C-alpha cells in the first residue's frame, strides 16, 4: 500500500512492489496477485477500510453538521500530513494522470472519491431533517464544496504544504450553517 501511496499506480514498478513485500520471484508475485492492477485495487480497498477511512469516520463526530464537517476536515489535514503514513491521500493521488490503457484505474479511484461526497450529503440531509439547516440548503453544492476542499488538502499535503498551514486553512473554512443560509439559486449546479 505504501509504495502505491508514494509512487502512484503507474509509478510503482512490480519490482519495487515485490521488494517492499519481500517477494523474491516475479512468478510468486503474479501467482498471488495476478498483476499490478489487482494488487493496486486490493491496496486501495485496504487503505479505504483502514487509515483512509478517518475523514469519513470523523463525519459521525459532532452534534451538529458544523462540528462534523470541521472534524472531517481536521482529520484529513492530520492524516494527509502525517509523516508516519504516506503523504497526501492514496485515493486522491494514486492515479491522477493515467495513460488511456489505465483509465479503469482512474475510474476506480474516482468512484471512491465520490464516497466522501455521498457521506457529506447524508450528513447534511440529516441536519436539514433535524431542523439544524434550512430546507432550502443546496445540499449537493455544499457537499461538493467540502469534498473539493478535503481533496485539495490532500493535494497540497502531497506538494509539501506544512500541516500547520493546512490546519489553519481548514479553520478558515466557512461553517455549513453559513453556506446553508445562501439561497439555493446562488449555487450553479449545472455541469459545464
Write the H/E string, N to C.
Answer: HHHHHHHHHHH
Count of discrete alpha- or pi-helical segments spanning 4 or more residues: 11
> Do you know the CATH architecture of the domain at 55-186?
Orthogonal Bundle
Shape by Cα distribution: elongated
Pfam family, one: TetR_C_13
InterPro entries: Homeodomain-like_sf (IPR009057), Tet_transcr_reg_TetR-rel_C_sf (IPR036271), TetR_C (IPR011075)
Keywords: Transcription, Transcription regulation
Domain Tetracyclin repressor-like C-terminal: 69-158
How would you explain this protein's 3D organization?
By secondary structure, the protein is mostly helical. It has a domain of 132 residues: Tetracycline Repressor, domain 2. It is built from eleven helices and no strands. The longest helix is centred in the middle third of the chain and has 27 residues. It is elongated. The C terminus is likely disordered.
Short description:
The chain is mainly α. 67% of the residues lie in helices and 0% in strands. The chain has a domain at 55-186: Tetracycline Repressor, domain 2, CATH 1.10.357.
List keywords for this structure.
192 residues; mainly alpha; Tetracycline Repressor, domain 2; 11 helices; disordered C terminus; TetR_C; Tetracyclin repressor-like C-terminal domain-containing protein
Task: Please give the structural blueprint.
Blueprint: H1 2-11, H2 14-21, H3 26-33, H4 36-49, H5 54-58, H6 65-81, H7 90-93, H8 103-129, H9 139-158, H10 163-172, H11 176-180
Keywords: Transcription, Transcription regulation
Protein name: Tetracyclin repressor-like C-terminal domain-containing protein
Domain Tetracyclin repressor-like C-terminal: 69-158
Amino acid at each position: 500500500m505504501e509504495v502505491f501511496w508514494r509512487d502512484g499506480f503507474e509509478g510503482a514498478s512490480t519490482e519495487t512492489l515485490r521488494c517492499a513485500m519481500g517477494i523474491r520471484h516475479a512468478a510468486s508475485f503474479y501467482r498471488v496477485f495476478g498483476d499490478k492492477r489487482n494488487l493496486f485495487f486490493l491496496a486501495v480497498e485496504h487503505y479505504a477500510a483502514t487509515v483512509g477511512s478517518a475523514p469519513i469516520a470523523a463525519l459521525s463526530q459532532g452534534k451538529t453538521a458544523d462540528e462534523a464537517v470541521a472534524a472531517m476536515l481536521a482529520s484529513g489535514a492530520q492524516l494527509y500530513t502525517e509523516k508516519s503514513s504516506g503523504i497526501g491521500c492514496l485515493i486522491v493521488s494514486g492515479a491522477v494522470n493515467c495513460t488511456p490503457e489505465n483509465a479503469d484505474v482512474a475510474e476506480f479511484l474516482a468512484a471512491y472519491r465520490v464516497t466522501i461526497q455521498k457521506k457529506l450529503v447524508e450528513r447534511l440531509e440529516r441536519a436539514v431533517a433535524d431542523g439544524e439547516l434550512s430546507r432550502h440548503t443546496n445540499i449537493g453544492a455544499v457537499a461538493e464544496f467540502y469534498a473539493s476542499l478535503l481533496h485539495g488538502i490532500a493535494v497540497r499535503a502531497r506538494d509539501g504544504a506544512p500541516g500547520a498551514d493546512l490546519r489553519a486553512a481548514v479553520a478558515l473554512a466557512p461553517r455549513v450553517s453559513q453556506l446553508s443560509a445562501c439561497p439555493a439559486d446562488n449555487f450553479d449546479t449545472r455541469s459545464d
